[in-house]
Design goal:
By secondary structure, this protein is of the alpha/beta class. It is 37% helix and 16% strand. It has a single domain (2-345), classed as Alpha-Beta Barrel (TIM Barrel), CATH 3.20.20.70. Helix 2 (11-24) packs across helix 3 and helix 8 (219-231) crosses helix 9.
């Protein structure tokens, strides 16, 4: 019922209302939208020295300002990634900038890293980071739209957020900030990873570094990213962000809007790119699969393509948080059907 009412509102308004309700009434919203789940031992993993109770994560973009992390922990996510956060608060791109493609179970957004800034999120995370908690917390960082030095923004982001993050993701793949995707090019990515490597050496706490990449990459670009990731000891890759491609199969009214496309139409493309990264890395770098996951079967396909973990976002808009429970309940059955006792046995088997 709540999801049906949300459809009467503009997409961004509906999202803001959901954040406000989850922030103010987390326990009530939890009871209203879902039910408790127990972690299945077949789904637990240890990555980067941390225990993930299950592989289901909340992708960056849903909780941009770290306002509803406690509520999301109750929903059953094994890990939660907040952001994208920029050093300074910024309004993002002009509205309207978020569009439902309901017939396609998809979204187009050109939000442009709208957020309250890293200091705002830091204060919120600081209150719960050292408390007992069920979920791993990741922080996704980006650059301000008007910055003159993108690399300096990422270094500053690392310095400002490292003490309240279990891992940090460097977002260089959003299509909605001019010039951002150029940081995926060899020379620029090399400079960025070298600068982050220097600041990581100085930091007392060893925080895993992840890089989120676009699905719109050629084979040579993929090879370059793998080479640099191995050279500069990147701890993980998130594959993938939204796409600028518009598939012929799209049927919805807003299909020609500019911005990044996410949801069901992205599933095949992002999973194919994921499998390419797995084959090239040979499993040496943990991968997070994101893009179009809307069922346990699709989550399992990501895992078989090489994902250690998966993330959800757009499907939650159409299916609600019950999807987390469905995946958690059905994944062990899918593993057992293929003769696997643990998720680690299935990773990359279909790549």
């Amino acid at each position: 019922m709540l999801w049906k009412l949300a459809y009467l509102l503009q997409p961004e308004t509906a999202h803001q209302l959901a954040i406000a309700l989850l922030k103010r009434y987390p326990r009530f919203m939890f009871r209203l939208m879902t039910r408790p789940i127990d972690s299945h031992p077949a789904l637990s993993q240890k990555l980067w020295g941390m225990d993930f109770a299950n592989p289901i994560g909340l992708a960056a973009g849903f909780d941009k300002n770290a306002e509803i992390v406690p509520a999301m922990m109750q929903m059953g996510f094994g890990f939660i990634e907040v952001g994208t956060l920029t050093p300074r608060a910024q309004a993002g791109n002009d509205k309207p900038r978020l569009f439902r493609l309901s017939k396609d179970r998809a979204i187009i957004n050109r939000l442009g890293f709208n957020n309250q800034g890293q200091q705002y999120a830091h204060r919120r995370l600081e209150m719960l980071y050292n408390q007992p908690r069920k979920s791993i917390i990741g922080v996704n960082i980006g650059k301000n739209k008007d910055t003159d030095d993108a690399i300096a923004d990422y270094v500053l982001g690392w310095q400002q957020m490292a003490d309240v993050a279990d891992y940090i993701t460097v977002n260089i793949s959003s299509p909605n900030t001019a010039g951002l995707r150029e940081l995926q090019q060899y020379k620029q990515l090399q400079r960025l990873l070298e600068a982050l490597g220097n600041v990581r050496i100085k930091h007392q706490k060893k925080i895993p570094l992840l890089v989120k990449i676009a699905p719109d990459l050629g084979q040579e670009q993929i090879k370059d990213i793998v080479e640099l990731s191995l050279t500069y000891q990147v701890n993980g890759l998130i594959i993938s962000n939204t796409t600028i491609e518009r598939f012929d199969s799209l049927k919805s009214y807003h299909v020609q809007q500019t911005g990044g496309l996410s949801g069901q139409p992205l599933f095949q493309k992002s999973t194919a790119v994921l499998a390419k990264f797995y084959r090239l890395t040979e499993g040496r770098i943990p991968l997070i699969g994101v893009g179009g996951v809307a069922s346990a079967e699709q989550a399992y396909q990501k895992i078989r393509a090489g994902a250690n973990l998966i993330q959800l976002y757009t499907a939650l808009i159409y299916s609600g948080f019950r999807l987390v429970h469905e995946i958690h309940r059905q994944l062990p059955r899918l593993l057992a059907k293929d003769g696997y006792n643990h998720i680690s046995q299935a990773i990359g088997r279909g790549a």
